[in-house]
Design goal:
By secondary structure, this protein is mainly beta. The protein contains six helices and 25 strands. This is S locus F-box (SLF)-S1 protein.
Length: about 375
């Protein structure tokens, strides 16, 4: 402010674009013009573009016993000790889930997906939540309106969350129906119309989406899952679903690893390439694990074993961080561990939870409100 006057609007906007979401929420109280500027879609979209190169928030979904609850925790990945950025955000909807599912509620099967423009998706069974953790917003999506015949057992075996633009997001549910007359249902939710659609596609023989932790990935405009065409537990191909065309395709694993028996697989993005972490199932003692990278997307022959890491106990592989130089995994004691690709340095992080319940994302802060995204 100079001579009691605010800077010109365009100068103000340019300065504010460098501010964090937390600061901008405070700046909305400075004046009506600042509030109007910060709430405008143009400013929000430009701020998102600026923040996408400076993502610094680790969002951790944790299940703890004292008191027993699910929560989000937030950490500054640029601080040496992973300083907490915000107070924990409890998930109020999980009380309802516990009531609905009674003792069948398994926090180990909660899926955390994203981020997409600062938004994340949390799913358990047919309960799907969207959240903007920076704005501390969380909402439950309406349930699917489709019912299966009585006597059929159903199970949601695959989830996906992605976006086509800043105002249109999709959630995919893959449902297994059986045991008699076994078939697969595909449901897609559209945020711009607040509606679900049943997708019928018999071209891909899906039998099973593997329940590996962190099995799903939204990458290059498509959802990816480890899947198979038989009733066996292990994956034999990667199933993709294009978010625009809504068409399924299959992608092959490396020739030498056509069937990953006795292994878990986690899909991830590494240096803008599709990648996967292969580690031994039910690992009890420290062992080596592999990082495979598809150098040319969609080309089977381009799969390369990029790194061998460990030995380290891995219960779940989560996400790359530190400019894709390290991988975050969960050890056998419910603690997060950082593994450096090039130096093989193993560092325990000060983040704990009940074993197998940790889920981790690196998120770019966003001002996009769920009230803008969800049409209800």
């Amino acid at each position: 402010m100079m001579d009691g006057r605010f800077p010109r609007q365009d100068v103000t906007s340019e300065i504010l674009l460098f501010s964090s979401v937390k600061s901008l929420l405070r700046f909305r109280l400075v004046s009506k013009s600042w509030c109007s500027l910060i709430k405008s879609n143009d400013f929000i979209d430009n701020h998102l573009l600026r923040r996408q190169t400076n993502g610094n928030v680790m969002v951790v979904k944790r299940y703890v016993r004292t008191p027993e609850r699910d929560m989000f925790s937030f950490y500054n990945i640029n601080s040496p000790e992973l300083d907490e950025l915000l107070p924990d955000l409890p998930n109020p909807y999980f009380k309802n889930i516990k009531f609905d599912y009674d003792y069948f509620y398994l926090p180990q099967r909660v899926n955390l997906m994203g981020p997409c423009n600062g938004l994340i998706c949390l799913a358990y069974g047919d309960c799907v939540l969207l959240s903007n953790p920076a704005l501390r917003e969380i909402k439950r999506l309406p349930p699917t309106p489709f019912a299966n015949p009585e006597g059929h057992c159903t199970d949601i075996i695959g989830y996906g969350f992605g976006n086509t633009c800043n105002d249109c997001y999709k959630v995919v549910l893959i449902e297994s129906v059986g045991p008699e007359d076994h078939h697969i249902n595909i449901y897609v939710y559209y945020s711009d119309t607040n509606s679900w659609k049943h997708i019928e596609d018999d071209s891909t023989p899906i039998k099973y989406i593997c329940h590996f932790p962190c099995n799903e990935l939204f990458f290059k405009g498509a959802f990816h899952w480890n899947a198979n065409s038989t009733d066996i537990f292990y994956a034999d191909f990667i199933l993709t679903f294009d978010i625009i065309t809504e068409v399924f395709k299959e992608m092959a694993y490396p020739h030498c690893l056509a069937q990953f028996s006795n292994s878990f697989l986690s899909l991830m993005s590494l240096n803008e390439c599709l990648a996967m972490v292969r580690y031994k199932e039910w690992m009890e003692e420290p062992e080596l694990f592999d990082i495979w990278v598809m150098k040319q997307y969609g080309v089977r022959e381009s799969w390369t074993k990029q790194y061998v890491i460990g030995p380290q106990v891995v219960v779940c592989s989560h996400v790359c961080w530190k400019s894709d130089e390290c991988l975050i995994v969960e050890d056998g004691n419910g603690q997060l561990v950082s593994c450096a690709f090039r130096t093989n340095e193993i560092k325990k992080l000060p983040i704990y939870a009940v074993e197998e319940t940790l889920r981790v994302l690196i998120v770019d802060e966003s001002l996009i409100s769920l009230n803008r995204v969800l049409n209800f």
